[in-house]
Amino acid sequence: MSSFPVLLVEDKDSLRGMLRHALEAQGHVVVEARDEPEAIQHLRQSRPAVVLTDLKLPTGDGFGVLRAAKELDPELQVVVMTAYASIQDAVTAMKEGAMDFLAKPVDPDHLVLMVERAIAQRRILSEYILLKEELAERRGAPRIIGEDPQLRHVLRQLHRAAGTDATVLLEGESGTGKELFARALHAFSQRADGPFVAINCAAIPEGLLETELFGHEKGAFTGAVGRKPGRFEMAHRGTLFLDEVGDMPLGLQAKILRALEEKQFERVGSASSLYVDARVVAATNRNLKARVAECQFREDLYFRLSVFPIAIPPLRDRAVDVPILARHFIERFCRDLNKQALLLSPAALDELRAYGWPGNVRELQNCIERAVILSDGDTIHRRHLNLSLPPAEPGRLDGEQGHAAKATPADGNPFAQIDLSGTMTEAVRRVTTVVERLKLEEALRNARGNKALAAAALQVSYKALLRKQREHGIGDT
Predict the structure, then answer these.
(1) How large a percentage of the chain has pLDDT more than 70?
(2) Are 242 and 282 in contact (CB under 8 A)?
């Protein structure tokens, strides 16, 4: 069944019933109206893809319906129906923006063909707008690669959330693939046939973000030479992905909250409310609870966004997926660059496994792309990966030695040589890496090398202890 409703405006019950039956028999959803005021009400509430309207109505007329439809959405397809004696009126309606006209008596088969053509044109236009923006940055359908149990758990959560219209909050570090998971959620949902519209709240200047989200009217501000639909409108009957929502300005958060709760908003420069049916998925690499405590994020908006929170694990906690992802990216970039299939040398594979991947999957993807470009044989070696880090950074590979760098305290302080550059999150991650390694070494010493006892003391599974040993380059003690 089509997810795009058809608004049928006709005052004669018998004709309206016949036309509705013909459309519903082909799987179309039909919304009925008897006059212009009722049609305008349905235009705002149902947001149809096609309008079929008689020109002669008991209250108002088809011209009023046409103008209201075009006022709401200039791309909305309108077909007018009129008696043969009023063909000139139909021609006038087409000059005002109607797609086509039908002379009465209406042929139901002709009507169905015209409606399906209008819906097809609508879909093509929506897809063109979205693809035009995404074409430069996307090179194929998204796939979620991996076998780690944590990843499988996230996918199960996605499937559960997809069966509802609940707002989902994806939480994860930068580079973990939050947009990929958002697209998967959309694909799993009943809105899969609708649009997926993404916007990065951190990448757009504060002064432009409101118009990007909600659109604007002609003359709303200097440079607004025409009406522009916003991302909320474009996501009607689909999914709106708000990336980096934690960076959204406070002043705009109240309007986002209203759009989520009431499904209504106004374009910038307009006093008329628009209804939109969009499922919202938000993502952040920030701690929103901390942002709320700092009064940088509205508490009511946080609760509205986190109806169904999903935490995406960092790549360092998915060690089993690193070689799987690496081979996937090798195949992809070899294909893109028209190179023969490449193999990973054992030393390169060991280095990939030992590395901490602070940039997560995005960093691994960039690393493999560079290695494929640099490789001039049939094998990717360690030198092609270029993962060596300064020895002052503990928990990372130490140049060409392939061993985890040890903390070498200068004055009894184990954190004396921690690299504090970058963001708070990055610095804390480095400290955590050192603490984790020291705790592992201590537990293994106390257990005299008995890994089962060490795992019990740390309250982690035996497999988790082995994985952490590999990550930190800790041999048997």
Answers:
(1) 85
(2) yes
